[in-house]
Amino acid sequence: MTLDFTWIGTKLCTPKPSSPEFLLENVPAGTTKLRFALVNQAGRELGGADVPLPVRGTVPRGAVSFRPPCVGGMYTWNVDALDAEGRLLATAKLTRPFY
Question: 42's torsion region: left (phi>0), alpha (psi -120 to 50) or beta?
Answer without folding.
Answer: alpha
